[in-house]
Structures are given as C-alpha cells and as structure tokens.
Amino acid sequence: MGQDIISTRTAQRRLNQLNNGNFELDDSSRSGRPVEVDFDRLKQLIEDDPRLTTRCLAEKLGCSHTTVETYLNKLGKTWKYGVWIPHKLSAHQLQYRIDIYLDLLTSHRNYE
C-alpha cells in the first residue's frame, strides 16, 4: 500500500462513524501515555546523568520506555557499558583507533 492510502480497517471505522452521525475528520484523543517527548528535557537528563535507563527516563518524562529509545536514537545516542554515549565517533576517537590499528599492524609484521 502507498503512503497516502488508509488501511481497510481505518476505512471501515470511518464509515461506521459517519453512519452513527459523527462527521468529525480529526482523530479523537486517546487514553494512555503521550507519544511526544520534551526533546530538550531528555537531552538535559542524559547530560546530567548518562547512566539513567530508558525506564527511569520514561518515568521522569511520563512516556513509555520505547518512546524514549526512539528519541535517544534520533539524538544519536547508544547504550554502551551502562552509559548513553554518542553513536558516532569523534575525530579524536577515530584517530585513536587508527593509531592502534597501525601499531597492531606494525607489531604483526615484526613477528613474521
């Protein structure tokens, strides 16, 4: 199905609403946790304590932990060794890896 096409179930639900006299085209509000997260507050919480788990962050932000994971991925963060860190390497980290690789390559050639 294309992006602009609604599912069969959605069409059935809309038709049922029209038959019952509900001509509102906007989606009605739903119960449950909000899907939107305060992006700036999430960033601040991670900067203050990068060891916070997604469940703890979700509790503080009032949303689900999967929503927090989604937003952390958008921030480019990944969970390594119990800390939220940037997913991409910094220039310093990249240079450090190259230096180690070259040292290992040199030492391997000396053993041959």
Instruction: Name the overall outline.
Output: elongated
Give the oligomeric state: single chain
- Ranges where pLDDT stays below 50 over 5 or more residues in a row are none
Count of helical regions: 5
Examine the secondary-structure arrangement and name the CATH architecture of the domain at 38-111.
Orthogonal Bundle
Reading off the top of the CATH hierarchy, the class of the domain at 38-111 is best stated as: Mainly Alpha
Order of helices and strands: HHHHEEH
Content of β-strand: 5-15%
Strands of the widest sheet, in order across it, are 1-2
Kindly report how far apart the N and C termini lie: 59 Å
Largest sheet: 2 strands, antiparallel
How many beta-strand elements? 2
Overall pLDDT: 83
Helix/strand-derived category reads mainly alpha
Helical amount: 40-55%
Protein name: Transposase
GO biological process, one term: mitotic DNA integrity checkpoint signaling
InterPro entries: Transposase-MT_Hybrid, WH-like_DNA-bd_sf
Organism: Rotaria magnacalcarata
What does this structure look like?
The protein is mainly α and 112 residues long. The protein has a domain at 38-111: Arc Repressor Mutant, subunit A (Orthogonal Bundle), CATH 1.10.10. Helices cover 54% and strands 7% of the residues. The protein has five helices and two strands; from the N terminus they run H-H-H-H-E-E-H. A two-stranded antiparallel ribbon has the order 1-2. Strand 1 and strand 2 (83-86) form a beta hairpin. The longest helix is centred in the C-terminal third of the chain and has 21 residues, at 91-111. The model has no long low-confidence stretch (mean pLDDT 83).
